[in-house]
Amino acid sequence: MADKRAMTEGQRAYEAKRARKAGLSLERWLEQKEKAEKAEQEAARKAAAKATPAPARKPGFFARLLEKAQKPL
Fold it and tell me: Bias category Low complexity: which stretches (predicted)?
């Protein structure tokens, strides 16, 4: 995501400050950040693929009653 060449000076300073706080070099910090983002995207993709729609449920009592009431005699 954030390549050194694509970041503004302010963004680079902010990331350097965060890296310093974490005790890492800026390059290492950006690599770690990118790796975490990729893992998060992969987990979201797997969760989306795993989520299957629930089987259609039978209409409830009142829904069936109203459906019958709508039918002509």
Answer: 49-58
Quickly list DSSP for the chain.
Answer: ---TTTS-HHHHHHHHHHHHHHT--HHHHHHHHHHHHHHHHHHHHHHHHH--PPPPPPP-HHHHHHHHHHS--
Contact between residue 6 and residue 39 where contact means Cβ atoms under 8 Å apart? no
| C-alpha–C-alpha distance, residues 20 and 15, integer Å | 8
Is the model's pTM score more than 0.85? no
CA torsion angle 12 1 38 45 (round to 10): 140
φ, ψ for residue 4, nearest 5 deg: -55, -40
As a whole-number percent, the residues of the chain with pLDDT over 70 amount to 93
How far apart CA 8 and CA 37 sit, in angstroms, is 20
